[in-house]
Amino acid sequence: MPVANIQVSETPLVLYTLRRADDALILGHRLSEWCGHAPMLEEDMALSNIALDLLGQARELYTYAARVEGKDNDEDKFAYLRDVRQYRNLLLVEQPNGDFAQTLVRQFFYSAFADLYWRAMMTSCDTTLAAIAAKSEKESAYHLRHSSEWIIRLGDGTEESHARTQGAIDHLWAFTGEMFAVDDGERGLIDAGIAIDPATLRDRWLKTLSRVVSEATLTLPQNNWMQQGGRVGRHSEHLGHLLSELQSMQRTFPGLTW
Amino acid sequence: MVTVLDRDTELRQRAWNAAASVVDPEIPVLTIADLGVLRDVVLLGDQVEVAITPTYSGCPAMNMIALEIEIALERAGFHRPKVRTVLSPAWTTDWMSEEGRQKLRAYGIAPPQAASSRRALFGAQAVACPQCGSENTELLSEFGSTSCKALWRCKSCREPFDYFKCH
């Protein structure tokens, strides 16, 4: 018998928190797919470690979303008992790992944003979000250093690694616009000092990217047409497959615990 | 004469000592007090509440540490102790005690540097080898066997070693 999806009362603050939690969970899950498969042992540990940080951030955010919602939901229900259309993550983070270059470019785009975003969120007047931000900021700075170094090594490496990394940048570029988009609910949170306006981060984000990408002898696309939809549950075909693996135990054995 | 205040102070100290005896399951030479993970111990009537702060968001040792604290307090005669997690202010390696740093070094792990160097995107760090003290060392991997460590190698004595990352 199929397990029913939970219902979520998506008030602006619940939705806002869930979106960031979903980003962290889905990207963390993607990175965990490398465990045991990375090109070298050090990278296997690195990607798994980053996945672990993201999973920890997701847990804090889900727990807070559940508290704000004030219903029967909790971190596990949010993760395991929502269907693909109920997920609110960025399209960027659900994109498949592809090759090593694609994984690192995805990570680089996200970490360069997360580093700025969490640092700015430390000033949120919501004390829980500010506290989560203070922890996540330190972790994101480290993740950014890791992916930046790889972008340089891959871009300025062999002809093959250069071509693959440039290909990944061109392919993933259209998914970056969503990070800076804001809807009416979020606008209200920004006005209230709970959230920060991501548009104010875009110049600095681009500066970080430009610096690393040019050192890597790569280029950023000039095409600025951006794909959107993840924030309202319109996902690419990849997320459903990811969730079928992430949720398989709870869907097969409802309520299973360790 | 023993006042209530004295009794509470003594009780709290006893609870603190019990909680402070819990060690990090991954680095058993360090107690949670050395690490700066133990933040507070308060008496709520007959119940003890211990506040801890996570090192890294996803550190799997935290669940075990919370469980060990409950066991340590039960053993010390405090019933149904509570463990609370506090996120703010965020944990930093700057809270690690000097004694903790020395224990780490003796254990073969290079202690963390001051967190002020953390922001440098490609900053040069000089990490001294915990075996021979040489600063002629190199980074092998930014990420190590646990969330809190990186892997380094000493170019003088050729020994690889763990470095407790500054955070």
TrEMBL record, chain A:
InterPro entries: Aromatic_CoA_ox/epox, Ferritin-like, Ferritin-like_SF, PaaA_PaaC, PaaC. Gene3D superfamilies: 1.20.1260.10. This is Phenylacetic acid degradation protein. It comes from Bradyrhizobium iriomotense.
TrEMBL record, chain B:
Gene3D superfamilies: Fe-S cluster assembly (FSCA) (3.30.300.130). Residues 116-165 form the PaaD zinc beta ribbon domain. It comes from the Bacteria. Residues 14-74 form the MIP18 family-like domain. Pfam families: FeS_assembly_P, Zn_ribbon_PaaD. This is Phenylacetic acid degradation protein. It comes from Bradyrhizobium iriomotense.
